[in-house]
UniProtKB/TrEMBL annotation:
Protein name per UniProt: PAPD1 protein
Source organism of this protein record: Sakesphorus luctuosus
GO cellular component: mitochondrion
Domain Poly(A) RNA polymerase mitochondrial-like central palm: 138-296
GO BP of this protein: RNA 3'-end processing
Residue span(s) of domain RL: 11-79
Gene: Mtpap
Length: 526
């Protein structure tokens, strides 16, 4: 995994640009059921050189095909027909989504070698537990979990393609616009099956400003003026939402949520299988994505620990895909980052240290907030910390099981525990908008449940007799932490909860019983 990280020393923006460019040269084909891969590629090659391709299952077999030249797509589109409008009338929007069927299916023998299909979802948690029991250390268990859950190269290509297809619609109105993914799809912490957050960007105007300096005139476009940026955002999203709803092939369940703090359009993109959220450019969200990208690239332990803690939290009902008073995955990720900044020596730098390494081109002031930090990973010195993941996992539970949440907050800019500025049960400073608490939604019972689970997990890891459990074929290490604790002896657990309010204990044990059934089914959220 460290080798993988060192090859990935490209900056966040370089990776984004490269992938958006790839997506522009890509098409998606719904294939016939008895398909010869050779025949398909042979035919497509008549339109131009194919750079890469893969197959995946989603309501039948699909192929994602990336051409070397963008012109190959136009050549292919010229050869494709419009569906026969016998029982349905069609909206004649020509996209890069095609359906291929065989002209004379009978004469085509099924292919000798079955197609290799790229998985687009992760294995269920119970199958994961089986796999983990075969590992030889907690550290290797954590890397197995990471490998099973992280986004694959193929899944990432599919995500950028979905953005590129939405961009084709936006360009009908705004020819210079781009649609880019942000959040978990690009910050290296996304898991297979997570939603796709994308935003519409009109601001690719850096090189444009220099051209405006020439000539004797101040020149500007005449544009419609509106009283607020929010209103403009709402109008644009409303129209694009309608557009996707009315004309977008495979865009279903389109919901416009325009009165939210951040207006958005939710829809399901059937051809790729993603649940999508489209909003208008939010610079701070992109800075957060890049910050996490940097932390994820710096050391392979970072991602392994985050994926493990998030899976653990999901199994025990500490996080939930529905909004509410639960800890969010973003807050949980930030708690892991803070813990890694607090190790001695630290495993990742603080945000202020990253800001200190920034040069002029890294300068970003957004809405009065300084969001500058270094983008070139080579400028960041690698950590001298050599702790294993076995140690770090136990220490994480120990650290937060005994953290003084009543008095202290987590400040990732400074990498310090600082006095809480206000009384929210859990206070994590927003790394960029310094007056916001990213975990404001979390209530006291949820925080206490987290503390209880962390203590219980630390205890299990300390008391464990690994050799005995391997002989008995019992789940051990991480596997033992991914089984809901209500399945164990509850009375043992009660003794370890001393010092946590008794009414919370009662609700905690009740929720454990409730969660058992639920968490086995939908074991891991976002």
């Amino acid at each position: 995994t460290d080798a993988e990280v060192s090859t990935r020393k490209k900056t966040f923006t370089e990776v984004q640009t490269e992938r958006l460019d790839q997506a522009e040269r890509t098409v998606l084909i719904k294939c016939p059921s008895r398909l010869s891969e050779k025949k398909l590629l042979q035919y497509l090659s008549s339109h131009g050189n194919i750079k890469s391709h893969f197959f995946f299952e989603n309501r039948g077999i699909n192929a994602l095909v990336e051409f070397s030249e963008k012109s190959s797509i136009a050549s292919l589109q010229d050869a494709v027909g419009i569906p026969n409008a016998a029982e349905h009338h069609v909206v004649p929007f020509k996209s890069r989504l095609f359906t291929f069927t065989l002209k004379n299916p009978v004469s085509q023998p099924a292919e000798e070698t079955p197609l290799h299909l790229s998985p687009q979802s992760h294995i269920p948690v119970n199958d994961l537990i089986q796999k983990l029991c075969l590992a030889d250390s907690i550290s290797s268990q954590m890397y197995i979990l990471l490998n099973e859950y992280q986004l694959t190269e193929e899944n990432i290509k599919l995500r950028f393609l979905a953005c590129s297809l939405v961009r084709d619609f936006a360009r009908a109105y705004f020819p210079d616009s781009t649609v880019k993914p942000f959040g978990s799809s690009v910050n290296t912490f996304g898991k297979l099956g997570c939603d796709l957050d994308m935003f519409l960007d009109f601001h690719d105007t850096q090189e444009h400003t220099t051209k405006m300096k020439k000539g004797p005139f101040e020149m500007e476009f005449q544009m419609k003026r509106l009283p607020s940026e929010r209103l403009a955002t709402q109008r644009i999203l409303s129209v694009i939402g309608d557009c996707l709803d009315n004309f977008g092939p495979g865009c279903v369940s389109v919901q416009k949520i325009l009165n939210a703090r951040c207006p958005l359009v939710k829809f399901s993109h059937q051809p790729t299988g993603f649940q999508c959220d489209l909003s208008v450019s939010n610079s701070i969200a992109i800075r957060s994505s890049e910050l996490l990208y940097i932390y994820g690239c710096l050391d392979s332990r970072v991602r392994a620990l985050v994926f493990t803690i998030r899976c653990w939290a999901r199994v025990h009902g500490l996080t939930n895909s529905a909004p509410g008073t639960w800890i969010t995955n973003f807050s949980l990720t930030m708690m892991v980052m803070f813990f890694l900044q607090r190790r001695s020596p630290p495993i990742i730098p603080t945000l202020d240290q990253l800001k200190g390494l920034a040069d002029a081109k890294d300068k970003h002031i957004i809405g009065g907030y300084d969001c500058s930090f270094v983008s070139d990973l080579r400028k960041i010195k690698p950590t001298k910390n050599t702790e294993t993941l076995d140690v770090l996992l136990g220490e994480f539970f120990e650290y937060f099981g005994n953290f003084d949440f009543r008095r202290n907050s987590l400040n990732l800019r400074k990498g310090k525990e600082v006095n809480k500025p206000e009384s929210s049960p859990l206070y994590i400073w927003n790394p960029f908008e310094q007056d916001l608490n990213i975990s404001k939604n979390v209530n006291q019972p949820q925080l206490e449940k987290f503390i209880a689970m962390a203590r219980e997990s630390a205890w299990i890891l300390q008391k464990e007799d690994k050799t005995q459990q391997i002989i008995n074929k019992d789940p051990w290490g991480l596997a033992a932490l991914l089984i809901p604790f209500g399945k164990r002896n509850s009375s043992k657990m009660k003794n370890r909860m001393k010092g946590i309010g008794s009414e919370t204990i009662r609700s905690l044990l009740d929720s454990l019983k409730l969660n058992n059934a639920n968490s086995q089914q939908k074991a891991v959220g976002k």
